[in-house]
């Protein structure tokens, strides 16, 4: 213990800021970095959330990824990133962290030190600063393409998970990966083409005198290389994910500035989680941008609906299969237009997720549901939350604040999707357990639409399982779907789970499901979603 304290004291005297943060808490405890030192601003941040808010926007995601991997897999990480101190001053720091303690007391322990320079050459104040030779080469390539009347292409290649490689395998392995990637690019290029590293995790490639087919072939070969990447010099298998954005000159851009900017746009679309290919050129990105403008308009429509109080809950009954009595109502979001017409808000939810507005929507639904339950003590409600909400501590904190009365919490069923479970099974299981500890029930929605296994279903410990409607609609004529549902019901019964079948649109389907001992039924056959409260006899 004395040796540990001496080490801690030495690190503090050397200007290091030492921190500890428990796994099961958002708090951070700091020591070191005496007042007036470069890092003194950080020592006043009491939570990880506040600390992350001070990290430069371009570095936050890789910091979050490194800390998440540390808690999930153990080991250690060492990384460099920027923090904002003294109001708006950018400071580069090196952060080294590992896990300490047993399962009950596990915490992240690390030290941060300011660094004068960093390994990301050519980067300053948040902007890319390409070296003079690269800019000169790109300018010359554009000029020659214009004069010769041929086509050139600038490719911007990103190694998306390089921060993880650095964290888990170290800088030497990461440098080896980068060298291998650069060598492969040179192998695929022609004499006279330019290949250079423009950022710690990005390469720039200038291809001269090419056709679009040449670039597509280059893209395919490089993608094949990345998918099957192996190095005889690296003992452990290393998985590296890449994205590539391209812009043709002079057809899509005629100046160096245009080329760099449009390549940035193309790469950002290639890196988007919804992208179907690892490569995107600017022409494709433009069409995506047009779609994005439509989405922005729809997002504005949703925001206005929230601000003008135009959002409503519609209620669809879920009935007990044995008695026909209403077990609960699912709450579905609707928008009342200026003309009084009611429309579903479902198609807007993916856009709300993409544009960071889904937390507002899910908080609105929770507040409305709780209000309805307080007014109507004899009804129960189910409602969906976004995949992102399962990883949102603010939403759970809101639940804690609103659900202090067990008579309210006991009448709530929160529906999560298979996608949420696939994103992070451990986090989703924590989300489920937290809600259950408050008295709520949790249902896994649309089971069968994704890839959740029965084993994962058991691990989640949900209370109910909703069968995806695609397995229900044509049930009488589909023997495979019949077998799937029978197997699921047997499994659920074995583990004490209740089963809900949705999309029940006919008496014939309802009868088959009753014969299979489904617990609850939902669909147009029993009632459509309506804003009026049918349990009160409203018209």
For the record, the CATH architecture of the largest domain stands as: Alpha-Beta Barrel
Query: Rg, please?
Result: 28 Å
Largest sheet: 8 strands, mixed, barrel
User: Number of DSSP strands?
Assistant: 21
**Number of separate structural domains:** 3
Report the average pLDDT across residues: 82
Question: What does this molecule look like?
Answer:
With 539 residues, this protein is of the alpha/beta class. The chain has 3 domains: 113 residues, 2-Layer Sandwich (Beta-Lactamase), CATH 3.30.450; 159 residues, Reverse transcriptase/Diguanylate cyclase domain (Alpha-Beta Plaits), CATH 3.30.70.270; 193 residues, Alpha-Beta Barrel (TIM Barrel). Helices cover 41% and strands 24% of the residues. The chain is built from 18 helices and 21 strands. The strands form 4 sheets. Strands 13-14-16-17-18-19-20-21 form an 8-stranded mixed beta barrel, surrounded by 4 helices. Helix 18 links the parallel strand 20 and strand 21. Helix 6 runs antiparallel to helix 7 and helix 11 packs parallel to helix 12. The longest helix has 26 residues. The radius of gyration is 28 Å and the shape is globular.
Quick structural summary:
The protein is α/β, with parallel strands linked by helices and 539 residues long.
How are the secondary structure elements laid out?
Elements: H1 2-13, E1 17-22, E2 29-32, H2 48-53, H3 60-73, E3 76-85, E4 89-100, E5 107-114, E6 123-124, E7 127-128, H4 132-148, E8 152-159, H5 162-169, H6 171-188, E9 194-199, E10 202-207, H7 212-227, E11 242-249, H8 256-270, E12 279-281, H9 282-307, E13 311-320, E14 326-336, E15 342-344, H10 349-354, H11 358-375, E16 381-384, H12 393-402, H13 406-409, E17 412-417, H14 418-423, H15 425-438, E18 441-447, H16 454-460, E19 464-467, H17 479-494, E20 498-501, H18 507-515, E21 520-522
Parallel strand pairs: 11-12, 14-16, 16-17, 17-18, 18-19, 19-20, 20-21
Antiparallel strand pairs: 1-2, 1-5, 3-4, 4-5, 6-7, 8-10, 8-11, 9-10, 13-14, 13-21, 14-15
């Amino acid at each position: 213990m004395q040796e540990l304290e001496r080490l801690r004291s030495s690190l503090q005297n050397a200007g290091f800021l030492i921190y500890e943060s428990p796994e099961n808490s958002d708090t951070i405890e700091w020591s070191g970095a005496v007042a007036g030192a470069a890092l003194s601003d950080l020592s006043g941040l009491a939570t990880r959330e506040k600390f992350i808010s001070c990290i430069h926007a371009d570095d936050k995601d890789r910091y979050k990824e490194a800390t998440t991997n540390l808690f999930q897999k153990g080991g250690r990480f060492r990384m460099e990133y920027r923090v904002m101190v003294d109001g708006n001053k950018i400071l580069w720091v090196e952060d080294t962290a590992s896990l300490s303690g047993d399962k009950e007391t596990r915490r992240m322990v690390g030290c941060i030190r300011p660094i004068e320079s960093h390994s990301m050459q050519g980067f300053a104040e948040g902007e890319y600063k390409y070296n003079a030779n690269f800019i000169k080469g790109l300018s010359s390539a554009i000029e020659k393409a214009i004069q010769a009347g041929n086509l050139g292409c600038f490719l911007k290649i990103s190694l998306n998970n390089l921060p993880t490689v650095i964290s888990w395998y170290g800088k030497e392995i990461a440098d080896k990966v980068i060298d291998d990637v650069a060598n492969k690019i040179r192998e695929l290029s022609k004499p006279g083409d330019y290949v250079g590293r423009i950022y710690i995790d990005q390469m720039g490639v200038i291809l001269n005198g090419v056709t679009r087919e040449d670039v597509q072939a280059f893209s395919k070969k490089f993608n094949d290389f990345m998918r099957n990447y192996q190095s005889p010099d690296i003992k452990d298998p290393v998985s590296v994910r890449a994205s590539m954005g391209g812009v043709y000159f002079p057809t899509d851009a005629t100046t160096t500035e245009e080329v760099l900017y449009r390549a940035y746009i193309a790469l950002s679309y290639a890196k988007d989680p919804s992208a179907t290919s690892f490569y995107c050129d600017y022409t494709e990105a433009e069409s995506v941008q047009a779609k994005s403008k439509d989405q922005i308009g729809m997002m504005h429509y949703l925001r206005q609906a929230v601000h003008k109080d135009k959002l409503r809950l519609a209620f669809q009954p879920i009935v007990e299969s044995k008695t026909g009595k209403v077990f609960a109502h699912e709450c579905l979001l609707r928008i009342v237009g200026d003309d009084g017409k009611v429309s579903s808000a479902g198609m807007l939810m993916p856009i709300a997720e993409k544009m960071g507005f889904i937390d507002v929507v899910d908080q609105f639904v929770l507040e409305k549901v709780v209000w309805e339950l307080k007014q109507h003590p004899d009804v129960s409600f189910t409602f969906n939350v976004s995949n992102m909400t399962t990883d949102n501590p603010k939403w759970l904190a809101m639940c804690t604040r609103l659900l202090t009365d067990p008579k309210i919490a006991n009448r709530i069923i929160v529906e999560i999707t298979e996608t949420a479970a696939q994103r992070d099974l451990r986090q989703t299981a924590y989300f489920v357990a937290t809600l259950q500890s408050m008295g709520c029930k949790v249902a896994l929605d649309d089971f069968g639409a994704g890839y959740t296994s029965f084993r994962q279903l058991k691990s989640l410990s949900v209370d109910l399982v909703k069968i995806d409607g695609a397995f229900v609609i044509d049930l009488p004529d589909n023997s495979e779907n019949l077998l799937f549902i029978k197997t699921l019901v047997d499994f659920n019964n074995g583990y004490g789970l209740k089963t809900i079948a949705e999309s029940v649109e006919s008496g014939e389907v309802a009868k088959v499901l009753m014969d299979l001992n489904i617990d609850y039924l939902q669909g147009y056959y029993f009632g459509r979603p309506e804003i009026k409260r049918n349990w009160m006899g409203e018209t």
